[in-house]
Specification:
Blueprint lengths: L16 H9 L6 E4 L11 H10 L3 E6 L8 H6 L4 E6 L5 H11 L5 E7 L10 E5 L18 H4 L2 E2 L5 E2 L19 H16 L16
Parallel strand pairs: 1-2, 2-3, 3-4, 4-5
Antiparallel strand pairs: 6-7
Length: 216
């Protein structure tokens, strides 16, 4: 898992604010924006401003984080109007920082989901606790049958540099032949629908054929 975020596997960087604004302009009112693909969103120096701007455009906002920076950025996160905050953890839980965030937040938004792997005792405060599952994208040998993946119809993933990914777990960008600057968002969504149609016919292109992220 730790080797996933490596500049030799994929380019690393922050989304340019001008690109982000252009993306917002192509999204329908009420779209859910999830800030979480391939990294820690709270590391972005303008993440809270990005949330605030999305809220002024009538969007629903969701951040997935490892929770390490929550205490440091608690005021800006709460004041941004963020709707949902998911703290997704496999290993060490930054309990003190999460509790400090929850105490500061009180009854205000965001709604906080703590997503942990396995049995855990003495968990930090949260509005909801979810048991998370491990997943991979490369070596699922056991699956024989597939259902078409609903993520292709319900989600669109845009990387920090403007390239599209076929879904939010396509971290290697194996099905990313296009860039937002070159192909309008509407056309990319049509391409995703085409992949869904292939799946319905039993054709699974990489990385979909080895992905075990979705349930059968």
């Amino acid at each position: 898992m730790k080797d996933r975020y490596n500049k030799n596997i994929m380019p690393l960087g922050y989304m340019d604010l001008a690109l982000y604004v252009d993306i917002l302009e192509q999204l329908p009112h009420g779209t859910e924006i999830d800030f979480h693909k391939d990294g820690e969103p709270l590391l972005h120096p303008y993440i809270c401003w990005m949330v605030e701007l999305a809220k002024t455009e009538g969007m629903f906002t969701h951040i997935v984080t490892n929770g390490i920076l929550l205490e440091k950025k608690k005021e800006r996160i709460v004041n941004s109007g963020l709707d949902i905050l998911t703290i997704s953890i496999i290993d060490d839980i930054p309990k003190e920082g999460i509790n400090a965030f929850m105490k500061y937040k009180g009854d205000r938004k965001p709604f906080v989901q703590l997503k942990v792997y396995g049995d855990n005792e003495n968990l930090p405060m949260a509005d909801k606790v979810i048991e998370r599952k491990l997943h991979n994208w490369t070596d699922d040998k056991d699956r024989i049958s597939r259902k078409p993946c609903s993520k292709l119809l319900n989600y669109t993933a845009i990387n920090w540099d403007g390239t599209y990914s076929v879904c939010c777990v396509d971290y290697k960008r194996e099905l990313s032949p296009f860039n937002f600057r070159e192909l309008p968002l509407k056309k990319w969504i049509e391409f995703q629908s085409m992949i869904y149609t292939w799946q319905s016919a039993g054709v699974f292109a990489a990385p979909c054929k080895t992905c075990n992220y979705w349930e059968e």
